[in-house]
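re: that chain from earlier
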Amino acid sequence: MNEPQYANPQVLRNTMLQLNVEALSAEMVRMRCEVILQQNIWLRQQRHLQQHNQLLLLTLMQAVSQNASTQTKLQQVNLESQCDALTKTLNRSIMLDRIDHAISMSKRQRRRFALLFIDLDRFKPVNDQHGHAAGDAVLLQVSARLTAAVRDSDAVSRHGGDEFLLLLNDIKDNQAATLFANKLVQVLAQPYQIAGASVLLSASIGMALFPEHGNSAHTLISCADAAMYRAKQQGGNRVC
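^ sequence. v structure.
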């Protein structure tokens, strides 16, 4: 009977080592593939997250822009509701509020203010001879001159037609208010440019003082209006 054949130990060790190496390599390859797979999954998630964040940022920016636009429109509507459509000075309703506020503040602080009622002299012939567009152009120039003449604490409004009100807050005394009104007469007597032509007009100004002539907006306006008519009866281009 033949003896059993045994493998060479060295050959057996080499074979086992080779098998272990191959197994280890296969495991490393598997692990590397798993890492690459996980990296790809992570990268896709990051791209999706980045796209989501960009979309969210864009949505927020649009919302902010729309809100700012809405706020601007609301402010514009609010401003337009307070102003005369043509001259952009205060309208009658807001001017009444300003006068009421001036009365309250003047009573509390024991101060005085003047209310000027301004009416243009010989304005009707401008409309008759040059048209209403020319009349509007004159009113715009008048409102610009009045606005430029007052302080931020004062107020100008179009009362109607070619009539304006000017609230002169915190006056030093009656003499100071009269001096201002007389300078205003000179300012309004400067030539007006309409359609390439120069037109000369003047203004009659009636002045009422708080608290001497009343303690309500309507009373002060009535007194200033009556004083303005006296100025017109005396030939206009003056202050009463």
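Residues 9-82 form the longest helix (74 residues).
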